[in-house]
Amino acid sequence: MDDRAPFPAAIELAGPQFAGYAGAGSSYRVWAPAVATPELTGAVRGVAQTAPPEWNSSPDSISLVIPAYNEGERLEKSLKEYLPVLEALGVPYEVIVIADGSDHTPEVAQKYRDRGVRCYTYSKKLGRGGAILEGFRRAQFQLIAFADADGSVPGSDFQQMVRLALGGMPAVIASRRLEPNRVAVPEPPLRRSVGFVWATLAKVVLGIQLEDSQCGLKVFSRSVVRDVILRRLSVTNRTFEVAMMFHVAKAGIPVCEFPVRYVHDFDTRMPVGKAIPIMFLTLMGVALANLLEVRGIPPPKFMVGLNSRFASV
Prior knowledge:
By secondary structure, the chain is α/β, with parallel strands linked by helices. It has a 9-stranded mixed beta sheet with strand order 1-2-9-7-8-6-3-4-5, with helices on both faces. Residues about 1-25, about 35-55 and about 310-313 have low confidence and may be disordered. Helix content is about 35%, strand content about 15%. Helix 5 (about 190-205) packs parallel to helix 8. It has helices at about 75-90, 105-110, 130-140, 155-165, 190-205, 220-230, 240-250, 270-295, 300-310; strands at about 10-15, 30-35, 60-65, 95-100, 115-120, 145, 170-175, 215-220, 255-260. The protein has one domain: Spore Coat Polysaccharide Biosynthesis Protein SpsA, Chain A (Alpha-Beta Complex).
């Protein structure tokens, strides 16, 4: 494997042309990274992959994780958006709210206890990635999804993404940039520009050929979460999602990008000015750690400390 470009080749297939996966009536895109030496048994080898791999065999239930740091004012919107979708699927489901703030988020979640919502509270801020990982560890079912508490992706798109996952796709991620004209309420120009630069950096530095790794709705098979994400991921700050998709792709797992009708919430909790330099440093750290790993060298202590210091950003 060329350690300067973790994914030297890949297939890119659009929609129903990708044999073995149920279409969802949209021009979604599947990226199947080609890897020279798959790390895990059953990993996809890229160029010959045309049917669902072992990563997602016959899923029949779903866990939805919602990270909720002081989200008492927005959580209910998200629950009202996604609970009807889960209830209509006709399969067992659960919603796991990870509340690591100090507001009334747990009380909001408690109102929906009879509809399968469970809330876990933490006295220490976990960071967005840390909260998602904690939810992943608690998830019981065969598909494991996470969604931001602002409900910025409509339930109808969430439903189609889940259908793709139930049909055998091991990783389905929402994308604002695959079809920008589908975005209902766009982000402000500065945030869009930052997002474009970030996606470009992820492509150049990590080789991740995705248009949008940061949109806050993703669905994975349990085996992807258990054998890749929880086993490999240590980043918990705002770089969490690009690091997660790097490890998913590095294992050779096909990733489906699904264009969504994103509705930007202007009450965003993303501290752009504070987060950007930390995200950049962490991105470089992920690239360096991969380079060292390829050569059998453990990461230096300062890299481990960097993530722990800025875990909650």
